[in-house]
Amino acid sequence: MVSAKWGDILGANLDELYREVILDHFQNPRRMGTLPEATHTLGLHNPTCGDKIAVDLQVEDGRVADYRFSGHGCSISMASASMLGDAVVGKPVAQATEVARGFVDFLTNPQSQETPPGDLEALGGVRKFPARVKCATLAHNALMEALAAHGVHAEPH
Ligand SMILES: [Zn+2]
Fold it and tell me: Dihedral sign, CA of 18, 22, 27, 28?
């Protein structure tokens, strides 16, 4: 399912170990789907690449109790959305927001001191491809906007 375009980027320019981690998330995405009881939902579109990703969150007692993502996109956008779930489920809302903010900083700020949690660090090679940064940060921006739009104490509706 990896198109030649994305396959070339992943194959030629990313570290072998990181490439395997990214491809694994792309081919076996974690927490893909929707949450019928979602308290926070937000979709974003990356027109430069065509990625469309929606993030569903279930916030309970100030924590991200569950996470799902849906949509379609390139290997980088889908792998990043898959990795993000592992990094935020179970965390307090403020900490989940900080994970997403830190990851965006990691990819966009050359002086960043951030070290993304879990498999997200594998996407560090994307920094060499400025056009791909929007792919890698799409789900993260959706999560931040979803949590900000509804406030941290939103009740299910
Ligand atoms: Zn993309």
Answer: positive
